[in-house]
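user: Please review this fold.
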Amino acid sequence: MPRETIDSILEEEIQVDVAILDEPATVEFEFELDCSSTVTVCLSSLGINSREEFDDSHDQAEAREMLADDYEIVWTEDGEYYLQEDTFICQSSEERYHTDVERMVINRHGDCISVHEEGDDYVYCEDTQETYLDDDAASANDVHWCSGCEETRCSEHHDFDECENGDDNEGETFNNSSSPWRGMNNDKYSRGKGISSTTFSNMNGMRYTFGVEIETSDGRVQDYDDLNCSAVNDGSISGKEYVTGVLVGDSGLSMLKKICDRVNDNCSISSSCGIHVHIGGATFNRRFTIMATHLGLMLQDEMFSMLPPSRASNSYCKKIPTKHEEMNFNNYKEHLADLIYSSATLDKNNNKKSRLGRYPTKRYTWLNMVGYSQENGHNTIEFRPHSASMNYVKIRNWVLICMAFTSFVENHQRRIWEARKLPGGIKLDEVLRTSLGDTLGGQISRYVESRKSVFEGAN
């Protein structure tokens, strides 16, 4: 064979060998989904050979596109990964979510559409047993709020005139509450009601909404036209419960002070009364509930140490059972089912689409997460342990403590997860200073210590 032919064959073989060496190695790895299952994937062409490398990648857009195209794995607005068949597109926000937060609601045209579970504006009507997209959709379908029975009712089933104009029990109850609404202007009226605000300096910039329930034993507020609150009956107390509207920012705190001062001037309280605070505007999902439970377990003894001893034994604000300290991402379904739904596990009858009634038993834990965990509840987390008070400073400080707790759960989940097994865990001072800053957080922390000293030895 001629020398030229031999050289040509060798050169071709070398080129082939080089080409083979230049090809990236094909590496498959298990991509864990947020539903605890895994899918075998290969992202070697993008230089990604493990889930850790995927998570550490600065630009995941191309990798997410490949996961969607080749493996039908999609990324949701909650920052989690699922099979596409287990997700849906919200027809209101046009964003993708897991089907466990899917909700069917009625729009203003009477059509049933799929939306995200945690919308703030959804309206449920007992008469029609339907949920509506917002107040406009409810009104378009002849469903309205009745101030007489304080429920959303349907004109086809309810006589509004007779209900609203009947005996008002000498004006003992009233509904003068206002809440933010979609498209609301941040004007003088809304700021005056505390439902919008241009400043948030007195809460270190946190923009959570908040509401307060003040229980009383006697007396009655009669001059309430300028207040954003309602007076309602509560079977657990002898007086009225004054419930604020949905408040926000510094304007909300100003309205809260006005309400506290008015209640203080006209009412009295007893040891059977309490203060309940609702915080809204957080991302309330299962991960939040898991982390809130662990932080609550670490802080609950300290929380109760700043309150009268009777609060620790109060049946309306029980401590979180310590058995839930064992909750992790493998067994959380059993723990949340017990903690929220009084059930053995999460299933089609016990989940965020469940309807638990107006007074479910599990709401009487000091950290009440039942509201946002059911279809017909408030989309808030409720803090129930504070003792009776009409004092604005005490109530404001408690609102800030509740906000700081909520912010810490949202923004420091790794710290909570790592601390849950450490001696000492997390202290309230860390939560306050992290969420409220050293200046404001330090002030509230010193207030907490002063309250502890009042009840030292009694708890």
User: Anything to note?
Assistant: The first helix runs from residue 3 to 22. Residues 33 and 81 are 5 Å apart (CA to CA). The chain is about 35% helix and 20% strand. The radius of gyration is 27 Å.
